[in-house]
UniProtKB/TrEMBL annotation:
Claim: Amino-acid biosynthesis is one of the keywords in the record: no
Organism whose genome encodes this protein: Streptomyces himastatinicus ATCC 53653
Gene3D superfamilies, sorted: 3.40.50.2300, lambda repressor-like DNA-binding domains
Superkingdom assignment: Bacteria
Official protein name in the record: Putative transcriptional regulator
InterPro entries, alphabetized: Cro/C1-type_HTH, HTH_LacI, LacI/GalR-like_sensor, Lambda_DNA-bd_dom_sf, Peripla_BP_I
SMART domains per UniProt: HTH_LACI
Presence of keyword Nucleotidyltransferase: no
Lineage of producing organism: Bacteria, Bacillati, Actinomycetota, Actinomycetes, Kitasatosporales
Length: 335
């Protein structure tokens, strides 16, 4: 078994320097850290987790709270979770995955027991009831998502306000003036989930500025619910020529129902989606879309929380800029 002393000799540093690189207790220059990490990898060194925890009073675990609800698109959440786990492992941390809908109870359990050194929270609501506990506990924490008030918090997310505006601007530039937004399930808005609310804020602001008529309808995402939602949209706004979809489950039913009604995409109606690229490109019509940068969000969240564990006390809000990819589903309106 390779020892810490052997790693130190291989890297040409002291044993204490290797220990500091592993524990994060002191700041080590980037070249030295890289040299030590390269030696660890080349020698196949695996520090004893129990010994490290006793020596540093740390568990070397990051808790990731991912409430798996029936009204969210789980594959995106899992893609973020996998990115968190792989990035954490690269930094020498394991991940404790909390998937229940316990809310504050789960925060109390983690912060009160020493189960984890830090926390990453997902599925953030504008007035998230977990946040007061996090402020009180003062445990290193990063949110993937934005609450209404970000003071004293570190957050990373796609800029959903800019995303909504970008989708509206794209359709407006093509000449569309009547746009319907097919949103998440109603429960997502009832919880005031941050990403959904912020997307609507961006859409509404852009619609006012560009003179668009905007109609928003939540949808459960099933074929039956999409059928009812689409009928309601065309009853209320028969001149609708553009759709913006922020609900992955609703995409295939929407395209199928438009075909059944004899509405061609994009000749009769255009569709823009906010969804992962693999969803957009595998649809029956390749969708113009804004991608969800799930892996980047997970990676950035871990890097921010590791920085906190290494003594960085600053707070920041890291918003990833949206990128719209034009594909086959958007074009000028039929007039």
């Amino acid at each position: 078994m390779v020892t810490l002393a052997e790693v130190a000799r291989h890297a040409g540093v002291s044993a204490s320097t290797v220990s500091y690189v592993l524990s994060g207790k002191r700041s080590i220059s980037a070249p030295t850290r890289e040299r030590v990490e390269r030696s660890i990898k080349e020698l196949g060194y695996h520090p004893n987790a129990g010994a490290r925890a006793l020596a540093s009073s740390r568990s070397n675990i990051i808790a990731l709270m991912v409430p798996l609800r029936t009204d969210i698109y789980v594959p995106v959440m899992m893609e973020v979770a996998i990115a968190v786990a792989t990035t954490a492992r690269a930094h020498g941390y394991d991940v404790l995955l909390l998937t229940g809908e316990e809310g504050p109870a789960a925060v109390r359990r983690v912060t009160g027991s020493g189960l984890a050194d830090a926390m990453i929270l997902m599925d953030i609501e504008l007035e998230d009831e977990r946040l007061p506990l996090l402020h009180a506990a003062r445990q290193p924490t990063v949110l993937i998502g934005l609450p209404a008030d970000t003071i004293g918090l570190t957050c990373v997310d796609l800029d959903f306000t800019a995303t909504g505006a970008l989708c509206a601007e794209h359709l407006a530039a093509l000449g569309h003036r009547e746009i319907a937004v097919i949103g998440e399930a109603a429960a997502v808005y009832e919880r005031h989930t941050g990403f959904a609310e912020r997307t609507l804020d961006g859409l509404r602001a852009a619609a006012r500025e560009l003179g668009l008529r905007l109609l928003h309808r939540p949808c459960e995402g099933s074929y039956e619910s999409m059928d009812g939602t689409l009928s309601r949209i065309f009853d209320e706004r028969p001149g609708t020529t553009g759709f913006i979809v922020q609900n992955e489950a609703a995409i295939d039913p929407l395209l199928s129902l438009l075909r059944r009604q004899g509405r061609a995409v994009p000749e009769d109606v255009s569709v823009v989606a906010i969804c992962p690229d693999q969803v957009a490109t595998s649809a029956s019509v390749r969708l113009t879309s804004v991608a969800i940068p799930a892996q980047e969000m997970g990676r950035r969240a871990v890097e921010l929380v590791v920085a906190k564990l290494q003594g960085d006390a600053s707070e920041q809000v890291a918003l990833l800029p949206p990128e719209l990819t034009v594909r086959a589903s958007s074009g000028p309106p039929p007039f």
